Amino acid sequence: MQSSYKVAVLVGSLRKESISLKLAHALESLASDRLKLGVVEIGDLPLYNPDLEEKVPAAWAAFRRKVAEADAVVFVTPEYNRSVPSVLKNAIDVGSRPYGKSVYSGKPAAVVSVSPGALAAFGANHHLRQSLVFLDMPVLQQPEAYIGNAAALFDESGHLKNESTTAFLRNFMKSFESWIDRVRD
Questions:
Q1: What is the mean pLDDT for each group of 10 consecutive residues in the chain (185 residues)?
Q2: Which of 113, 156, 161, 173 could covalently link to 125 via disulfide, CB atoms 3.0 to 4.6 Å apart?
Q3: Of the candidates 174, 128, 166, which has an alpha carbon nearest to the alpha carbon of residue 147?
Q4: Quick check: 135 and 97 in contact, CB under 8 A?
Q5: Would you state the pLDDT for residue 63?
Q6: What is the Cα–Cα distance from 31 to 169, expressed in whole angstroms?
Q7: 5-184 adopts what CATH topology?
Q8: Which residues, at least 6 apart from 103, have a Cβ–Cβ distance to it below 8 Å?
Q9: How many CB atoms lie within 10 A of CB 1?
Q10: Is 35 helix (H, G, I), strand (E, B) or coil?
């Protein structure tokens, strides 16, 4: 068991005041000191095109390096049209190519879906899990994290104000830490 783990956090929303980004920061604050979470930016990644592998864009190289250096990955995503946002799918494609050189393979993962609506981005959560199976990422199964009505969970400063959600997410991060220990051993 390692003393600490570096965890890449991929946020599927680019909006500055994104609920998903606020939740990603909340996860960082609720994780134990053993988990070193850091958001890896995905908004500047050129769209995946195999032709670009001949001269890899600097943004791709930096992204791939950051994810490769991580011990685990947390995906925090909203839902667009019952699936993941294109920016997150692009980050998955950029990191998983060229075939056989995926930066994701074998890394423990967790998925948190976030929505201002009541369905809590259930569709995005499960679509993302399908991709993670192909990427050979062992995904935390329980507890599942569907965060609905999320806009009401944060104060004006972007901090969680709901005690039950805070307790749930703290437990989620403890479970993820145990999952990483189990998978990485």
A1: 94 93 96 97 97 97 98 94 92 96 98 83 89 96 92 91 95 98 92
A2: 113
A3: 166
A4: no
A5: 98
A6: 9
A7: Rossmann fold (3.40.50)
A8: 64, 67, 68, 95, 96
A9: 9
A10: strand
Residues 6+ apart with CB under 8 A from 75: 9, 10, 12, 88, 109, 110, 111, 112, 128, 132
pLDDT of residue 77: 95
Give me the pLDDT at residue 185, please. 80
How buried is residue 7: exposed, middle or buried, by Cβ count under 10 Å (0-12/13-18/19+)? buried
Sequence ranges of the domains in the chain: 5-184
Query: What's the confidence (pLDDT) of residue 120?
Result: 65
> Cα separation of 5 and 13, whole Å?
24
Tokens linked to 1: 């068991």
